[in-house]
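re: the backbone from monday

yeah here it is again, tokenized this time
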């Protein structure tokens, strides 16, 4: 009943995150429905990114007949994992859009036959929906993969002290990328929930 220590910290984190979602969704009821999904995305990506910094991971290698390859790599340095997570986010956005606007209301955003200009704009928006898959996935994959390569090169060339600033930058990148992916998903969900007339 009376929270102490770690519970206070967790409650502060949850309340702050929920308030942040409220500021974007502008509707407490919708925020409470969307929050578990978006916050789970953030926590999953954050933990997966931070696991990369456990010392000694790159030391575990296997010889595959041609060269030694690391057993453990950054989770999101593999595009397959990023693509799956992006597709989960994309499908969720489409489902939320249909649920909030109805099937015809949501399709009305993309196929509006009232005028040629509205039809053209709708088709452009449909192309933009699919472009979100590339923008979300390549942003996360590119940053994490580039960071992994950069750290590998610096640790190989200068194993002491010089890689430390880059390690700090990669820690910041790990947090920022988790935040960006979750927030963009939240914004896409809010945009999908707008009716065709509001749009």
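seq for it, each position gets an aa:
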């Amino acid at each position: 009943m009376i929270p102490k220590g770690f519970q206070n910290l967790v409650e502060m984190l949850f309340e702050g995150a929920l308030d942040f979602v409220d500021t974007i969704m502008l509707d407490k009821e919708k925020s409470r429905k969307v929050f578990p999904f978006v916050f789970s995305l953030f926590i999953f990506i954050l933990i997966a990114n931070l696991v990369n910094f456990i010392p000694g991971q790159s030391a575990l290698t296997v010889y595959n007949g041609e060269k030694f390859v690391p057993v453990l790599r950054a989770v999101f340095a593999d595009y397959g994992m990023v693509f799956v997570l992006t597709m989960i986010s994309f499908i969720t956005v489409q489902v939320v859009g249909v649920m909030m606007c109805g099937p015809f209301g949501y399709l009305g955003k993309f196929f509006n036959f009232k005028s040629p200009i509205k039809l053209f704009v709708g088709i452009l928006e449909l192309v933009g929906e699919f472009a979100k898959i590339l923008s979300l996935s390549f942003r996360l994959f590119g940053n994490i993969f580039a960071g992994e390569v950069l750290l590998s090169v610096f640790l190989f060339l200068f194993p002491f002290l010089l890689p430390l600033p880059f390690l700090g930058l990669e820690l910041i990148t790990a947090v920022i990328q988790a935040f960006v992916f979750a927030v963009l998903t939240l914004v896409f969900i809010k945009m999908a929930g707008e009716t065709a007339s509001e749009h």
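The chain has six helices and two strands. The mean pLDDT is 85.
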